[in-house]
Specification:
The complex is a heterotetramer, with 2 copies of chain A and 2 copies of chain B. By secondary structure, chain A is α/β, with parallel strands linked by helices. Chain A folds into 2 domains: 88 residues, Translation factors (Elongation Factor Tu (Ef-tu), domain 3, Beta Barrel); 102 residues, Nucleotide-binding domain of ferredoxin-NADP reductase (FNR) module (Rossmann fold), CATH 3.40.50.80. Chain A is 15% helix and 35% strand. The longest helix of chain A has 13 residues. The mean pLDDT of chain A is 95. Chain B has a single domain, classed as Aldolase class I (TIM Barrel, Alpha-Beta Barrel). Chain B is built from 10 helices and 15 strands. In chain B, the strands form 4 sheets. Chain B has a 7-stranded parallel sheet. In chain B, strands 4-5-13-10 form a 4-stranded antiparallel sheet, with no helix packed on it. A two-stranded antiparallel ribbon of chain B has the order 1-2. In chain B, a hairpin with a 4-residue loop joins strand 11 and strand 12. The longest helix of chain B is centred in the N-terminal third of the chain and has 15 residues. Chain B is globular. Chain B starts with 5 loop residues before the first strand and ends in a 16-residue tail after the last helix. The mean pLDDT of chain B is 95. The chains are: A alpha/beta, B alpha/beta. Bound molecules: flavin-adenine dinucleotide (2 copies), flavin mononucleotide (FMN) (2 copies) and FE2/S2 (inorganic) cluster (2 copies).
């Protein structure tokens, strides 16, 4: 983890109420996709945790949905403005395993960290596939960016207005996979837990005090005892999760 | 050169800045970020006789100028603190630490303190009779002078280390409780713990915190903390350890002028992990700005004249 | 079209937004700025039997997310309020007003209320047993159930208008005090008044407020206010009039979900003189956003399930 | 009084820690020199009251000293930034009297409102003179602006590093005047009260809650009963003041 002042390079509306922001600054503390950053915004006491979508040596990308006062302020930020950011938080996805065909299951804002994950898996010579789930066609974002990485992408919409009608799990049919990674809302996780048969990893969200393991604000109980979503997670192995 | 040292129960601290219990764990996460030996000392996470997972989540809610927490005293229990946390602490922190203790009965407080009394790493015992986040728990002891005194006496009987009583601000008369603790043998009074508060989510129409209510802290509570430190300073002779909303070197001076001998920093550590280091760095410069040569000179300074 | 009306003791208000006592004078300064008939009603400046100049200045200190005031119930006295303020009020405000009353003895409370009972402009009496800014004064009455009940009974005996008791948050157990007031006949419970707080000026090393301490209010106190409204709503059957840090239409909904039938706005009026008008304008749109058709539907909504 | 969003046109450091800021916005509610504006600053609860130094149909000038966190933020403002301002607050100086040679006595930041006052008096065909008092030569500001109005200006410095050595009252010798107006710190007022022989007007400062008469935060007792510094003042007649 490091703390720094990051400069907004771009900040653009995607579909729905999703935005993409690129920040310039120190990324040396980033070790894995699925990690997150924690953003201080003027006028708010707590920071806002947002997953790393992508990063290189001196910049990073986040995708965020406007859901409240803080993300509203983020959507107004202009290139050149600066932000106090804690970077490289949490343990991200573990990608060193022997699986060959990992499946990425993303829902809504949960799609963000899967993009960096897909890149990492491709770099390791694996053959990931992605299923991206949205509420409706007008919300679809980043499916093109995933495709551009050169992996098979299926889109599902809850209302059937684009891609496969239904949830992420309704798009599983005929997909070959030997492992899964997922990030998205709780109802999606429950559906996945009922449908998938392989091992895998889930990324969790929790209201956070600090984001770096100091306050015990984000604890969850696992089969290996109490864990902090921010520091020991946000990604947990399917095997250790207590539902 | 200004002098930032203060003395707490005969022990000289390099400076009065002490991370507050529950916002600094057992120091480990911060020791990874900076050399925490720059601190006056720190108060470790509220420790109980048995391990506790704490409350269900969400445990955190944001507020204007502050936050609510309902962690509920999650901790590994005193045995593990002694067998694992303190030995690890020794590797990165070389000053006496403040052991923050909670309990659910007078006997439990005493037993936990007795076990910690044997630890050379522990310089002070800070007995939390004020946690708002546990049912039938700590806060009950802190809302009556009699119960607070009973806890004080029981703890004093089992330890030779200095004992601070940490009080809740959720009371009508903080002074009578502080005095009862002093009369029962307390060597210091820590205040304030958090103020009981709540937030409601407009989308779900439910309390944000799973436990419904939790403890408010952060800048928002500073005026209340200053007032209580000021009142208690006038009523007791033992040192007052002031906290509540401190996040800058200026706040440290304000708290000391109100009567604090040392100052704890809580929620600010969560938002800025370097908060205490930054405050300590800026302290000499801010002291010079306000003409303070020796920090001990201004303790209770706002009471003069 | 959403329905913003609420009912207080049988009287229907166009909306639940009520400027809080002490932040709206007798309405005059605001009537110069906008038509204050858009308000639900308003609570006029705390009025006492005799005229009062109040405390020495400075009476105001700034805080993070709030302010401290130590005005000390400056008012022209009930006789002049009746002979001058209310007749003037009639020219620009055409709804029943809330008469906020303070006193220094049970008899004084009763006598002031008796005089105001005769005024057709007054729709409700809001009896402030909670002002932290007067020595030996109001706050003493609000810190014990017995005294609060005694004031309630005395006032109820001299008026047929609905009587609200306005309580102080500076207590260990707000619920027992609210219940005592209800049992003694109160028709509503207003809460919260200000929290006792202080600030110290680093340059002068003295309290900013001449009176040393004063009452903290503003956004900083909202979580505490919400908690107390929530607790009292569960304990009493009479309407709760919620206040403390409300400054937006969202805050109004949050306060009502906690259990408030109507919502007062205090310090926000001082920073933005149009605060109440703005809140009322935005209320329908915010109600729609959160799927609220009738405002009365959500009173105490956070207690369900 | 009116509330509006005002745009910073310029903001420059004068000597000492004094600054001059010009704001563009509605000035229609301004009725007299000596009135003030009340400025909302991000991150602060209460507004900051600052005297009107000068104004025209669509802009106004203020002079302010950096003394704390709020004025520090003001000093950082850049042209184009906007501020929420309450304008035209208080009763200013009364200038309709029969005096011919009013004397303006200003100390430090108190010099600000005297500039607009001087202009008003000159417009009325009167012959004002000004004594401007500073701590030291390096702090002197706006004396040239006063001279440019075409009125006699004396400067006094407490340390004698420029102009007359001493306080504003030490510069009175030989000045002919039949009325006075003053704005400055309390010790200066006490010296003036001992030295001057004519009628006059004092402008007062007090910590304010609202600035428009609603909260009774700024009350003072006068011979005519209790007055609000913000609404009934900040200027009071010598005759009504209780010292
Ligand atoms: C590890 C992690 C990674 C995340 N990554 C992303 C991402 O890549 N893209 C994205 O759009 N969102 C992400 N979120 C959710 C994001 O943090 C919230 O949407 C955001 O904090 C809402 O802030 P707000 O002020 O707009 O909402 P408000 O509801 O006004 O926020 C109030 C408080 O609640 C907290 N809060 C609200 N919703 C959540 C939530 N879902 N999780 C945790 N805290 C919350 C806020 O941080 C704040 O403290 C992530 C959350 C976590 C924990
Ligand atoms: C009617 C009036 C006109 C004024 N005109 C000018 C002017 O033209 N130029 C100028 O430089 N200053 C003027 N002042 C003083 C100016 O308001 C303060 O210097 C300023 O508010 C300080 O803010 P701060 O945040 O920098 O200081 P801080 O000390 O951090 O402020 C803390 C709080 O105290 C208040 N405060 C501090 N000092 C004063 C003061 N002297 N008077 C009133 N409130 C104060 C602040 O407004 C704030 O609420 C005037 C004051 C009043 C009442
Ligand atoms: C997340 C969190 C956890 C806390 N846990 C404890 C605790 O275990 N024991 C204790 O005595 N105080 C605990 N506190 C209270 C703080 O030590 C401190 O008294 C309070 O937060 C006021 O200081 P602040 O405003 O600087 O945060 C906790 C506070 C927070 C924010
Ligand atoms: C300047 C000021 C004066 C006040 N005077 C009174 C008063 O006379 N009577 C009273 O019952 N409450 C008084 N109050 C308390 C408010 O009515 C209200 O209860 C409190 O400020 C909390 O609301 P807020 O956070 O919206 O300000 C006063 C508050 C302020 C800020
Ligand atoms: S948010 Fe503080 S420990 Fe996870
Ligand atoms: S500051 Fe509110 S009445 Fe003057």
């Amino acid at each position: 983890m490091n703390q720094g002042i990051y400069t907004v390079k771009s900040n653009r509306a995607l579909n729905g109420s999703y935005y993409e922001m690129r920040l310039q600054g120190d990324t040396s503390s980033v070790t894995a996709p699925g990690q997150f950053i924690n953003i201080k915004l003027d006028g708010f006491f707590l920071r806002r945790p947002i997953s790393l979508c992508d990063w290189d040596g001196q910049s990073l990308t986040i995708l965020y949905k406007v859901v409240g006062a803080g993300t509203e302020v983020m959507a107004e930020l202009r290139p050149g403005q600066t932000l106090d950011v804690l970077c490289g938080l949490g343990n991200g996805f573990q990608t060193g395993g022997s699986e060959r065909m990992p499946l990425l299951l993303g829902g809504g804002a949960g799609i963000a960290p899967l993009y960096g994950l897909a890149k990492a898996l491709l770099r390791q010579g694996k053959q990931p596939a992605a299923i991206l789930a949205f509420n409706t066609a007008a919300e679809i974002f980043y499916s093109r960016e995933f495709e551009a990485l050169g992996l098979p992408v299926r889109v599902a919409t809850a209302d059937g207005s684009a891609g496969i009608k239904g949830f992420v799990t309704d798009a599983l049919a005929g997909v070959d996979y030997d492992y899964f990674y997922t990030c998205g809302p709780m109802p999606m996780y429950r559906a996945i837990e009922r449908s998938v048969t392989t091992s895998g990893q889930y990324s969790f969200e929790e209201r956070m005090g600090c984001g770096f393991g100091a306050c015990m604000g984000c604890s969850c109980m696992t089969k290996n005892g109490s864990k902090r979503v921010c520091k020991d997670g946000p990604v947990f192995l399917r095997e250790e999760i207590i539902w | 050169m200004v002098d930032t040292r203060v003395v707490l129960n005969g022990v000289t601290l390099d400076n009065p800045v002490i991370p507050a219990s529950g916002t600094f764990g057992y120091g480990h996460e911060f020791a990874e970020l900076y050399d925490i030996n720059c601190l006056g000392t720190f108060s470790f996470k509220g420790t109980t006789l048995s391990p506790r997972f704490g409350n269900p989540t969400p445990r955190i809610a944001e507020c204007t100028g502050g936050m609510i927490n309902a962690v509920g005293l999650q901790n590994p229990g005193v045995a593990k603190v002694i067998s694992e946390e303190l030995p690890r602490l020794r590797t990165y922190f070389h000053k006496p630490v403040v052991a923050n203790v909670s309990g659910f009965s007078v006997g439990e407080y005493a037993e936990t303190c007795r076990l910690l009394d044997a630890c050379p790493e522990v310089g002070w015992l800070e007995v939390n009779v004020s946690c708002p986040n546990v049912h039938g728990g700590g806060m009950g002891f802190g809302t009556s002078p009699e119960m607070a005194a009973a806890v004080t006496r029981a703890v004093k009987a089992v330890t030779t280390k200095p004992v601070w009583l940490k009080l809740t601000p959720n009371v009508t008369d903080i002074v009578s409780i502080a005095k009862a603790c002093e009369d029962a043998g307390a060597d210091g009074i820590s205040l304030i713990n958090t103020l009981l508060g709540m937030r409601i989510d407009l989308k779900t129409r439910k309390p944000v915190i799973a436990n419904k209510m939790g403890g408010l802290s952060g800048s928002a509570v500073k005026p209340i903390a200053l007032r209580m430190v000021y009142q208690v300073y006038e009523a007791v002779k033992v040192p007052v350890i002031g906290m509540g909303g401190v996040s800058s070197a200026e706040d440290v001076l304000e708290m000391m002028l109100a009567g604090a001998t040392a100052v704890q920093v809580g929620a600010a550590n969560l938002v800025n992990p370097f908060a205490c280091r930054d405050i300590i760095k800026k302290l000499p410069c801010v002291m010079e700005k306000y003409g303070v040569e020796k920090l001990t000179d201004i303790i209770g300074g706002a009471h003069n004249g």
